[in-house]
Design goal:
By secondary structure, this protein is an alpha+beta fold. 56% of the residues lie in helices and 7% in strands. The protein has a four-stranded antiparallel β-sheet, with helices on one face. Strands 3-2-4 form a three-stranded antiparallel β-sheet, with no helix packed on it. Helix 1 packs parallel to helix 14, helix 14 runs antiparallel to helix 15 and helix 15 runs antiparallel to helix 16. It is elongated. The two termini are 24 Å apart.
Length: 448
């Protein structure tokens, strides 16, 4: 969380600002005691003439009166309110993400790779739909909810994934999935003669052995099947391990060792704890493509979980998801962090400014408007909304708070009933205070 370091920094800076304010009173020929006397007598303390330079005289004698002119105030308010409204509109259209090219130096060899991938790539990264524990794959009814062979459910897991491949422009799924269950049931079927055992020993006879060999016989007979494709439970798990060891060959292309050796996870009793069904994304070139692909994969997984009636959870996995998963929640995370920062500003300002509610509201609103304006400028400058920009926005809150507290002190003058202070005195003192704070900031940056 970024809020707690920010809160400590905020408190320390606000305390330093109050000390600078006290020092400012002394520098203007006004002691702290004289300030409280002014509060009691409602009379402005007088500053030493000639103690300031040309900028001070310009602000006091010209700029302050110009800025407080009714027409100028109306124009300034219109400009700032209009800019704030435009920024609110722009921030809703910020690009969320981070292009791969931006994350690398311009002279990196990966720049050419990213460009070629975008120009010539015809398929995307593999995606695995993992089915967690809860499915008894030896049960024909459970098989029908997974497989896509004749007799399987029309809304089965693999049937839905195949249907998603027909709308690849939306689903980002390029092709029908590789289903180990379909291939295994086909491989074990007596009709294609892929699953064989040695007649004498009962050991597995792999597909490399000639089909004409008289030493091998079929694993299953029609009496061993519960349906057209499904073996009995004991036979199902017994020959499944043979299927995962069998290499594809010209005699039998359905061997599962090449494609599915790592697709299943077994318990000690040989039952399946989890398995995956793999396919590919369409060609993904820019960050928005990867983010959309992740969103669609999660939507598909949620639908598949509902299809299985909650008996097992389905979730998607791809190697690239780890880089783009943050962008699904970054807007919420940024709003939460900035909101907590604003709450910390309000509470600390309220406590340290003498329980002044209006001062706390003014400071918090100024900080919020500055952050919104910065996000509007991000839209104009085509800056993406990502983890880097969120960190910078939190730092903007820190800097904006420092400036907004000066406005809060002006409001504090009003709350202390010092309305009889000459207007130029208030403004010039605030300008001097701001210059002191900025000088302190620049010294800190030089030291760093």
């Amino acid at each position: 969380m970024l809020v707690w370091p920010f809160s400590l920094t905020f408190c320390s800076r606000l305390l330093a600002l109050l000390l600078c304010f006290s020092w400012m009173l002394k520098g203007s020929g006004t002691s702290v005691l004289m300030f409280f006397v002014a509060f009691m007598t409602k009379k402005a303390p007088s500053a030493r003439e000639g103690a300031r330079g040309l900028l001070y005289s310009f602000i006091r004698d010209y700029y302050s009166y110009f800025l407080m002119n009714n027409v100028v105030r109306a124009v300034v308010m219109a400009i700032f309110v209009g800019g704030f409204a435009a920024s609110v509109v722009g921030m809703n259209h910020l690009h969320v993400g981070l292009n791969q090219e931006v994350s690398m130096p311009k002279d990196s060899y990966l720049q050419d790779y990213f460009k070629d991938q975008a120009d010539y790539g015809r398929t995307g990264p593999p995606v695995y739909f993992v089915v967690k524990d809860g499915i008894d794959y030896s049960d024909p009814e459970e098989q029908n909810r997974i497989c896509s062979l004749p007799g399987c459910n029309s809304d089965s897991l693999t049937a839905q994934l195949s249907a998603q491949a027909t709308i690849k422009h939306y689903s980002k799924i390029a092709s029908a999935p590789n289903s180990w269950l379909d291939d295994y049931l086909t491989w074990a079927s007596p009709s294609i003669n892929c699953c064989r055992i040695y007649e004498k020993s009962g050991d597995f006879c792999n597909s490399a052995v000639s089909m004409d060999s008289t030493d091998c016989e079929k694993c299953l007979n029609q009496s061993d099947l519960l349906t057209c494709f499904s073996p009995k439970p004991k036979k199902f798990y017994h020959f499944l391990h043979y299927f995962l060891k069998d290499n594809p060959s010209k005699n039998c292309s359905k061997g599962g060792h090449a494609a599915y050796a790592k697709a299943l996870d077994f318990r000690s009793n040989n039952s399946i704890t989890s398995s995956y069904f793999s396919t590919y994304h369409t060609a993904l070139a820019v960050d928005t493509d990867f983010i959309d692909a992740l969103k669609r994969a999660r939507e598909i997984s949620d639908n598949l979980t509902k299809t299985l009636n909650g008996s097992a959870e389905v979730f998607p996995y791809s190697l690239v998801y780890v880089y783009y998963e943050q962008y699904l929640t970054i807007v919420h995370e940024a709003a939460m962090n900035l909101g907590l920062c604003a709450a910390a500003i309000f509470v600390v300002t309220f406590l340290l400014m003498g329980f002044s509610l209006s001062c706390a509201i003014i400071v918090t609103m100024n900080v919020a408007m500055i952050v919104v304006d910065v996000m509007g400028v991000m839209y104009l400058w085509n800056i993406s909304f990502n983890a880097v920009s969120v960190v910078n926005l939190v730092m903007v809150v820190n800097i904006a708070m420092l400036m907004a507290v000066v406005v809060g002190i002006a409001d504090l003058y009003i709350e202390l009933r010092l309305l009889e202070f000459p207007l130029n005195f208030v403004l010039t003192q605030l300008v001097h205070l701001l210059s002191v704070v900025n000088q302190t900031e620049s010294q800190e940056l030089d030291m760093r």
